[in-house]
Please model this.
Amino acid sequence: MKYWRTHLGLFFPLLVVAGLVLWPVVTGNVSNRESVFTILKAIALASSLNILLGYTGYVSFGHIVFYGFGGYVGLYFINEQGWPIWAGLLVGGISSGLLAFLLGKAILRLRGAYFALATIGINEAMKALINNLELFGGPIGMTLNFSVYKAYGGAAQALGMSFYIMAGLTFAALIASHLVRTSKFGLGLQAIRENEDAAEVMGVAAPDSKTWAYVLSAIIPGMVGVLFFFKNGNVEPHVAFPLHSSIELLVMVMLGGQGTVLGPILGAFAYQGMRGYLVTSDIFKNIQLSVSGVLLLLIVLFIPAGAVGWLRQRAPVFRRVLA
Amino acid sequence: MTVLLSVQGVTKRFGGLQALTQVTFDLPEGQILGLIGPNGAGKTTLFNAINGTYPPEEGRIIFRDKDVTTLKTYDHARMGMARTHQIVQPLNELTVRENVMVGACFGRENQSLRHAADIADEVLEFVELKVRADQLAGSLNVAQKKRLEMARALASRPYLLLLDEVLAGLNSSEISNMVETVKKIRNQGITIIMIEHVMKAVMNVSDRILVLDYGEQIAEGTPEEISKNEKVIEAYLGDPKLAEKLLQED
Model:
């Protein structure tokens, strides 16, 4: 009984994502599949960011650095060394995790706005570094040899396979988020979020916990990067490290509800829906990012807990099922 | 009697301010040590030095025969040293039960989540907060938050409990309630150092008392000795006669 109650919170998130994944499979529509791919990617990235932002309370404005860096490393091994996709994904995830570990040791001692600023600096520094790194193609980036797709039965098959890998990564991100939330480790993170000094007095080894939270939040973005660049067939520095995407991720997490498993899913879904409308609308297509900025402002001012957090505060019934 | 905590020549400076000067004492197991002194005497600073929040510049802290002077606060907590804060520090967005579970999970016994929940319920019962267990900690009033601080510390099953003004801001019935709680904790075998301004209470529960003034240890002894110590009375009130009068009123 207790076991079921602990894991009840995973029910809605799994249901929503399973529904999303099944939609293009059932309709057999390739354009639907591409839309869902974009949404799944946003969900996986937002859920990962949530481990740091929502559970630990550290705002990262440069989280996309892990997506770009992992993506570059993975694509390099797939393209230049002829590694299979799964090995590329693995090495991308591991290298992003490693990067987060080293960065965490250096900048997680900063708190609040200082940490947020440092994360922006890191993203820009990494972009500049890759821009000048001949190994990764410098400013031109890398283009996938078409022959790489042959191993998977051609480009069309490779794209189809990418969708299912994306679905797998999204489920992995959700389960990781849920496990962190319901674990002792996660309780320590939440204590740090609420009051880091008090948490340390109670025995939470904050420096280590924060570093591991950072590492966990970096691994899946690294893998998503590899997959996305593999599917796209090329990677360039400005595509890999777009600062505005980091901010869009923040909006998604805040919109849906930070510190919950379901929140980033709903936030990512709603934001991608809105973005899809804005970029195709004549009035908004050029000021699409301004709309996100205004949205972030409104959330912070009026519903800082996000949609799911708001519901949980209103009715105790939701506290049990929405996690 | 075994010595649980030994503070040896502890000195702490904040820039030009001499916050603690050569504070030295031994605390035997199972006792309550009252720590008193006027505002700004360095009482909370001494707690911060003992539990590693601000390690001292000179001197050593020996806890259960180990030198813990330069260890981090969380290492102290894991070794069995727990504290409450003068200014309450609840984890507002977590429930009361979760707050206490943090103490149980990361304190001396390093409990699993499931056991921590049981310990939390037990400790909340003890400090009479059981009915509030599912409420958010931020929604408690001050007296309840003080009890929550106590519960979090107790849930770690500490050897040593540092209580920083748990009586401040409480009304008289809440005070006598809390004093009873402190006595019960001591009877469980937990050693306590308590900083307190409510004289009657601290004289009543302490086995020994240590007096700080401007960071210096001006007296140490039993409550009776301290209440008759002229240096203490002067430091506190300036006028020994006034002090006698106040003590009689109590």
Summary: Residues 2-246 of chain A form a domain with the ABC transporter involved in vitamin B12 uptake, BtuC fold (CATH 1.10.3470). Strands of chain A lie at 142-143, 234-235.
